[in-house]
């Protein structure tokens, strides 16, 4: 009888612990799958095209993956562009800075750096940014400027955007303070 009680006690203790271990493993596997999906979506969406600075090699400019998704380099200062009307839409500097009728926009740091990237953003901030086109998803925040195609995210599910956020949180943090956008002189004169 005593051994049966010992077995029952052992089962009563081991079964819940086994369940916890399996749940943790399942959760870890689900997170890994979410990060993998996010990596795919970030690559498919071409995020590196504008958010990863280039370096110059013998083969020409190539993405500098040591600064992957860190945005416009803080050390690269640009002259004020001469935005005369013409048959053009935009001009770019290394793909991380764009000038057009809206002014000058700079690709932001998407790495999880807490001071200069999106490390302090919540998943909700990230999703809202891409849903409403406002920085950090704040309704009264500054607009996300061209050429960032945030409107395309309206076709994505919340699960897609959560996966992208999970992936961005998994990459190395890069400290890089991207400049704020520059508004055109005409817009400045009106304010």
Key structural traits:
191 residues; two-stranded antiparallel sheet; mainly alpha; 3-stranded antiparallel β-sheet
Provide a descriptive summary of the structure in words.
The chain is mainly alpha-helical. It has one domain (44-184). It contains five helices and five strands; from the N terminus they run H-H-E-E-E-E-E-H-H-H. The strands form two sheets. The protein has a three-stranded antiparallel β-sheet with strand order 3-4-5, with no helix packed on it. Helix 1 (2-44) packs across helix 4 and helix 3 packs across helix 4 (158-170). It starts with a helix and ends with a helix.
Briefly summarize what is shown.
By secondary structure, the protein is mainly α. It has five helices and five strands. The protein has helices at 2-44, 47-51, 123-132, 158-170, 185-190; strands at 54-57, 60-63, 91-93, 97-100, 103-106.
> Main sheet?
3 strands, antiparallel
Strand neighbour order, sheet with most strands? 3-4-5
- Report Rg: 23 Å
In total, the number of domains comes to 1
Oligomer: single chain
The overall strand count is 5
Which helices and strands appear, and what pairs or packs with what?
Layout: H1 2-44, H2 47-51, E1 54-57, E2 60-63, E3 91-93, E4 97-100, E5 103-106, H3 123-132, H4 158-170, H5 185-190
Antiparallel strand pairs: 1-2, 3-4, 4-5
């Amino acid at each position: 009888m005593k051994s049966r009680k010992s077995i029952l006690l052992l089962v009563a203790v081991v079964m819940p612990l086994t369940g916890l271990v399996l749940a943790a493993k399942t959760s870890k596997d689900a997170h890994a799958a979410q990060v993998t999906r996010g990596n795919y979506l970030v690559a498919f969406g071409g995020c590196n095209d504008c958010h990863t600075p280039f370096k110059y090699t013998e083969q020409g400019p190539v993405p500098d993956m040591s600064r992957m998704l860190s945005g416009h380099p803080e050390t690269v200062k640009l002259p004020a562009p001469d935005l005369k009307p013409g048959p053009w839409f935009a001009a770019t500097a290394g793909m991380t800075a764009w000038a057009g009728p809206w002014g000058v926009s700079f690709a932001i740091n998407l790495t999880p750096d807490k001071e200069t990237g999106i490390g302090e953003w919540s998943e909700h901030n990230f999703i809202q940014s891409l849903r409403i086109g406002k920085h950090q998803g704040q309704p009264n925040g500054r607009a996300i400027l061209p050429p960032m195609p945030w409107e395309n995210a309206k076709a994505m599910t919340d699960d897609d955007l959560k996966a992208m956020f999970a992936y961005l949180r998994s990459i190395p943090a890069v400290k890089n303070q991207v400049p704020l956008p520059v508004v055109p002189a005409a817009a400045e004169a009106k304010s």
